[in-house]
C-alpha cells in the first residue's frame, strides 16, 4: 500500500507531456482519442525525389518530415517534396509517415432539430423543439 501511494505521488509530480493519441487507429480517417477526448485526424505523407519522382523512405524529425537518406537511391538527387496521401495502402505503407493532428473545435459544427407532433381535435400541429446553443448556454 505504501508502494502504491509512493508511485502515485511520483506519477503526479512528473510533468505530463501532450497526449500521443496511441489508441487512435491508424487505419481510420479520424476518430476521438479515448485518452484526451479530442477529435484526431490521421494524415499520411510520403517523400518523393524532385528529380525522378521515386518514393523515398520518410522519417519524422520534430515537426517536419524528411527522407531517411540524404540522397535519392535512384538518381542521387538531394531535393525532395512531400505528397499527402488520401488513403494508405499496402504499397506505400513502408514509405509513409503518419501524422496525428487534432482537429479544431469549430470544424465539426452541425445542427439537428426535431419536430414534435401534437394532435388536437384532428388538427395536426408541428412545433419545432428549441435548440440549445452550445456557445451561448441558453436557448436561441
- Mind describing the biggest β-sheet? 5 strands, antiparallel
Structural class: mainly beta
Helix content: under 10%
Helix-strand topology string: HEEEEEEEEE
Contiguous helical run count = 1
What does this structure look like?
Strands 1, 2, 3, 6 and 7 form a five-stranded antiparallel beta sheet that branches. The protein has a two-stranded antiparallel ribbon with strand order 4-5. A two-stranded antiparallel ribbon has the order 8-9. With 140 residues, it is mainly beta. The model is unreliable at 136-140 (pLDDT under 50). It is 9% helix and 34% strand. It has a domain at 19-102. The termini are far apart.
Question: Descriptors for this entry?
Answer:
9 strands; disordered C terminus; two-stranded antiparallel ribbon; five-stranded antiparallel β-sheet; 140 residues; mainly beta
Amino acid at each position: 500500500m505504501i508502494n502504491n501511494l509512493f508511485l502515485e505521488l511520483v506519477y503526479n509530480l512528473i510533468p505530463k507531456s501532450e497526449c500521443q493519441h496511441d489508441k487512435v487507429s491508424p487505419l481510420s480517417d479520424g476518430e476521438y482519442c479515448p485518452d484526451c477526448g479530442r477529435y484526431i485526424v490521421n494524415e499520411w505523407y510520403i517523400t518523393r525525389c524532385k528529380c525522378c519522382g521515386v518514393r523515398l523512405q520518410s522519417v519524422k524529425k520534430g515537426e517536419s518530415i524528411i527522407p531517411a537518406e540524404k540522397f535519392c537511391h535512384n538518381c542521387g538527387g538531394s531535393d525532395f517534396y512531400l505528397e499527402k496521401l488520401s488513403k494508405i495502402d499496402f504499397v506505400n505503407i513502408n514509405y509513409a509517415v503518419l501524422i496525428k493532428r487534432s482537429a479544431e473545435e469549430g470544424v465539426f459544427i452541425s445542427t439537428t432539430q426535431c419536430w414534435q407532433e401534437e394532435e388536437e381535435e384532428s388538427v395536426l400541429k408541428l412545433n419545432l423543439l428549441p435548440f440549445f446553443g452550445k456557445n451561448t448556454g441558453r436557448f436561441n
